[in-house]
Specification:
There is one protein chain. It is built from 18 helices and no strands. By secondary structure, it is an all-alpha fold. The protein has a single domain, classed as Growth Hormone, Chain: A. Helix 3 runs parallel beside helix 6 (79-110), helix 7 packs antiparallel against helix 15 (287-315) and helix 10 (205-221) packs antiparallel against helix 15. The longest helix is centred in the N-terminal third of the chain and has 32 residues, at 79-110. It starts with a helix and ends with a helix.
Amino acid sequence: MLGWGGNHFTPLLLLYRQHEGYTSVEVDLLFALYVLGIVPGFLVSGPLSDRYGRRPLLLAGVALGCVGSLVLAFGAASVPVLGVGRFVSGVSVAVAMVVGSSWIKELSAADHVPGPVAARRASLTLTAGFGLGPAVSGVLAQWGPAPTLLPYLVHVALTLAVTPLLLRAAETRHGADRSRPLLADLGVPRDVRRRFLTVVAPAAPWVFGSAGLAFAVTPALVASRTGADAVVYATLLAVVALAFGAGIQQVAIRIGRWTGGRQLLLGLALAVLGTLLAALEAVLLSPPFGLLVAAVLGCAYGLCLVSGLTEVQRMARPDDLAGVTAVYYSLTYVGFVFPVVLAALAPLAPEALQLVVLAALTLAAAIPVARNLRRA
């Protein structure tokens, strides 16, 4: 539900442009603004949950998620108010991703579940929320009453409904060392830092960079062709991208065997292909072709996410798990800045050219990953 709350804003981007008259830069800024909440949320919630337990931090995330949705529900007429809502929603999603992923991994380990399967559980849980949110909210915004209000109220109601389940899960963090400074719990251990910097870090921005291109950039490219159906089309692209992202995560372990442990490199290759297809879409302006773009970028998102998380969970010790996960997710969310940069550069260069350049940058990021994945 916290993943739902972070992503159900996405298909409403075009709605705010149509109903409130916001510019593309303002809308894309709102899309990226919650990165300002999500990154500090990552950096604080991870070390705190390593010290004080998973449940208290996740309950705080639930409260923030509800507050964020309520602010968004009643602030549609004001960009600053929407910005505050996005910031608070970002903090809540950060808690879900870092604390929730760590908790799922530890609960899975207690049941003797292999590490790659535990990482897949965590990434699929997030992807399910990220997909259901825009699917439901997009439909409500397109055909329901009060399109800028109802989606958020539904999210709050569902979040409160499932919160009692959270209280029944077993706490996995007990007796942590609280004597060292809090910042000491945040970071990558020295013995695995080289692999993190050369394998995980270069690929991380293209997790949500790929998703952002599918959710925010592709619908805007063909907005002139979709007209009154722009919101439902953006919703469809989000659902397609996340459905393919979830599907490829189901076979990620098998892909790892096929590629000799290089599934992360395949994820980056899909990101290059999807970005080039988006560049072609900027020329074709074809709504059906946009579905193909979203599918390829969704596969890139899903495979990069689960592969990067698997690497992180392998290298982290129990006392460092949430802290290292926080650093990883902080880097993945750099990708949400991509749509804002592309929108800001629109007066200077054609969108197709911008996307080709972005594909070249993706290819450059894959070089250190390809060189260092061969090391055990």
